[in-house]
Amino acid sequence: MSDPPSADHHYRDARYYDHAYSRYKADLACYLALAAESGGPVLELGGGTGRVALALAREGIDVVVVDRMPSMLERARERLAKESAAVRDRIELVLSDVRELALGRRFPLVIAPFNVFQHLYTREDFERALGVARAHLNPGGRLAFDVLLPDPDALARDPLRFFKHRPVMHPRDRARYAYSEAFEYDPRTQIQTTVIRFERLSDGEEVYDRLMQRQFFPRELEALMHYNGFEVLQHDGGFAGEHLETTTESQLIVARPRPTP
Predict the structure, then answer these.
(1) pLDDT digit string (tens) for 30-46?
(2) Per the confidence metrics, is the pTM higher than 0.85?
């Protein structure tokens, strides 16, 4: 029996994660605006090392950050230690799976930024996470999250071919590595596996990483929200209200639970 899908390997080295995604800020203004409208506090599912939570806390918004990876939360604590006391006091870190969370409190806004829900590999997992979000929302509260728009060309790539990118520096040893990626898509599970190869330029030593992401097509996503009791308020092709197009990279969903009869 093969191991169940997991992205844990990709998130064990939280320092490299921060290094790799340090320039990603495309979503911050959107989530800041949603949080400001809600008035806070905000529950962030899959908050990782605190990238979004720190931006919210610096604007005076309280955030509860939930993540299942101890390595990510430990890195978040390291980052928090460098902040002012006011910012530190606005962030609470919770170790938990987003499918099982039970805080016993509610929020006006629940968010899951940067493709968190793409690590929910089955319909049952996705529905459990939506149930957690619903249980933690105030009446009239909103859930906001983003996932990538599937790219048909990318899904059809030859899984044996590695695509080269620019060399990178790895913070683990400060060495430079050639960086390349290969992609394999399973149409039955709709899971794309990205195999990442690091080749140290000094001696050719190779290190591999793996990232698995569930792909969600737009109508499928809207159906999942509908049949799990959510009304979709926004379904955009980006973080500034863009329409869904063939060139869209991220889908943004803002939804609220439908009132029960």
Answers:
(1) 999 999 999 999 999 99
(2) yes
